[in-house]
């Protein structure tokens, strides 16, 4: 194993490749969503999203806190040059994840009929059960030695290569499906093909990295230290509660509740609106560089044990998130009507209320990303039990509100829960962690002011939009206005800009 790079070098490399990856994958995701919405019927699109949500539900049931443990302890082991421990930990967790996946899918196989009947799921899912389970098994197992392992090592260059190959496979598959008219079954086979590609690409890289890490000269530097099993088990056990709370807090069960009370076409509208907001959220720095932020927090805290470092980092991270989230979400809300009409399909306009509510959710989610990173770093995961309780209340509210108000009721319950979760996480960070990510300055007011000016411009020219070209021109003009005003009314303080510019040794932060 080569000598560990400095944290700064790794972050610079990770930042560069993360940006490249997003520049390439973001258009791919847009193309995929457009093809699927235009090609599949509303019912088939809702069924496709049910398959994705079924896989998402599985991660909460088979997680065992594995992803959080890898994110927390691999950076620490890497910092201490305990390379063999990294290999043992990731290999053991991959085997454990595979075994739990097989057990859960076996249970699903034995009791799928009552579940399908209860949620009124379409028959095509029952006839394609083997394909769906193969897709879930591959996806949920590969991510351990793939996404989690490579992210913990900040190897975003290889992740970029992986994402390009996987996206190209999926786009090629759904285009072929459309040309051959293979329908939803063709889309399911495409999902499996993309996961097999992921298995091959990530698997070869993981084996190579493991071979490098267990070379004798690497082992000699790790000393006689052993894997901190008790710490990992303790940390993972509490994170199981946090991860499982995501099952009731997040949107994975929403599709099944909507299918039960409103039908598959409403599932399509709800998941379309959610997907559109999630694509916008993916360009937010907190989401874009989330693994990098987590890695920096853990490694800096491992070096110094100084909570002041976390406090300053959390404050700056929160501002970075809101600096992009507020204008991006405001823009997509204002332009949602034309986007649906000219880019997707006019019959999806029923998703507009969902889009507006989810825009509120993802503003608070930016703050929750910062809070969660601090809590994980300080290993205060036992307090995640509070989120589990809040999630159960959200689940109950979602069932009742969906019964009465359909997808608007579901989105309202999700919005209220995100606000409550933000308040709980903030309380944990400030009172239990002793860290305040909020600093009294004018940054947040200035971000809001600049966003308001941009929003007024976009609202004023809405009537001028008559097609895709004018829609794109309006979006670009709005972005130019926001960043132009931010150059004059700077949201970040001079010392904050200096911290970022000094780290990158370039004057990239000018706002």
Average residue-wise pLDDT = 85
**What form results from the Cα inertia axes?**
globular
| Unreliable stretches | 217-224
Number of helices: 21
Helix content class: over 70%
The figure for the number of domains is 2
Q: SSE order in H/E notation?
A: HHHHHHHHHHHHHHHHHHHHH
What percentage of the residues does DSSP assign to strands (E)?
under 5%
Number of strands: 0
Helix/strand-derived category reads mainly alpha
Report on the biggest sheet: none
Radius of gyration: 23 Å
Q: Give the distance, in angstroms, between the N- and C-terminal Cα atoms.
A: 40 Å
Protein model, in words:
The longest helix has 37 residues. The chain is mainly α and 511 residues long. 44% of the residues are buried. It starts with 6 loop residues before the first helix and ends in a 7-residue tail after the last helix.
Which helices and strands occur, and which strands form pairs?
Elements lengths: L6 H33 L2 H21 L3 H14 L3 H37 L3 H5 L1 H24 L3 H25 L2 H31 L2 H7 L6 H21 L4 H8 L2 H18 L3 H4 L1 H15 L2 H36 L9 H26 L7 H21 L1 H26 L10 H18 L7 H21 L5 H11 L7
Summarize the structure.
Helices cover 83% and strands 0% of the residues. The chain has 21 helices and no strands.
């Amino acid at each position: 194993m080569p000598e560990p790079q400095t944290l700064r070098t790794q972050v610079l490399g990770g930042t560069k490749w993360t940006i490249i990856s997003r520049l390439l994958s973001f258009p791919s995701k847009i193309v995929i969503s457009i093809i699927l919405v235009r090609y599949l019927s509303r019912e088939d699109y809702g069924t496709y999203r049910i398959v994705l949500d079924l896989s998402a539900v599985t991660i909460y049931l088979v997680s065992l806190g594995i992803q959080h443990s890898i994110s927390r302890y691999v950076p620490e082991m890497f910092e201490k040059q305990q390379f063999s421990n990294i290999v043992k930990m990731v290999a053991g967790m991959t085997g454990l994840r595979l075994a739990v996946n097989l057990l859960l899918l076996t249970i699903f196989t034995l009791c799928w009929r009552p579940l399908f009947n209860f949620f009124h799921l379409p028959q095509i899912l029952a006839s394609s059960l083997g394909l769906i389970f193969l897709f879930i098994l591959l996806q949920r197992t590969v991510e351990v030695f793939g996404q989690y392992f490579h992210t913990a090592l900040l190897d975003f260059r290889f992740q970029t290569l992986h994402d390009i190959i996987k996206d190209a496979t999926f786009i090629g598959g759904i285009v072929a499906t459309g040309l051959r008219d293979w329908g939803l079954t063709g889309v399911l086979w495409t999902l499996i093909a993309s996961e097999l590609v992921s298995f091959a690409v990530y698997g070869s890289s993981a084996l190579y990295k493991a071979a490098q890490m267990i070379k004798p000269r690497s082992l000699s530097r790790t000393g006689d230290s052993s894997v901190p099993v008790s710490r990992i088990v303790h940390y993972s056990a509490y994170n199981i509660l946090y991860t499982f709370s995501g099952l009731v807090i997040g949107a994975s069960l929403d599709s099944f509740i909507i299918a039960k009370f409103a039908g598959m076409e409403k599932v399509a509208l709800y998941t379309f609106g959610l997907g559109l907001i999630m694509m916008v959220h993916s360009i937010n720095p907190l989401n874009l560089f989330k693994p990098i932020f987590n890695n920096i927090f853990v490694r800096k805290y491992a070096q110094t044990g100084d909570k002041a470092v976390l406090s300053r980092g959390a404050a700056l991270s929160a501002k970075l998130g809101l600096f992009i989230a507020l204008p991006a979400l405001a823009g997509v809300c204002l332009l949602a009507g034309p986007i649906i009409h000219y880019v997707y399909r006019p019959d999806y306009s029923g998703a507009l209320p969902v889009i507006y509510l989810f825009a509120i959710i993802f503003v608070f989610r930016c703050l929750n990303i910062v809070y969660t990173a601090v809590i994980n770093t300080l290993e205060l995961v036992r307090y995640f039990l509070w989120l589990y309780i809040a999630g159960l209340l959200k689940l109950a509210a979602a069932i009742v509100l969906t019964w009465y108000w359909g997808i608007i009721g579901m989105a309202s319950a999700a919005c209220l829960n995100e606000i409550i979760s933000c308040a709980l996480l903030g309380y944990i960070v400030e009172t239990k962690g002793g860290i305040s990510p909020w600093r009294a300055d004018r940054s947040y007011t200035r971000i809001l002011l600049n966003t308001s000016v941009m929003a007024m411009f976009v609202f004023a020219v809405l009537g001028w939009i008559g097609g895709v070209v004018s829609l794109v021109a309006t979006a670009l003009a709005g972005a130019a206005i926001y960043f132009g005003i931010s150059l004059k009314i700077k949201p970040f303080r001079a010392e904050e800009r200096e911290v970022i510019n000094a780290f990158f040794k370039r004057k990239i932060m000018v706002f």
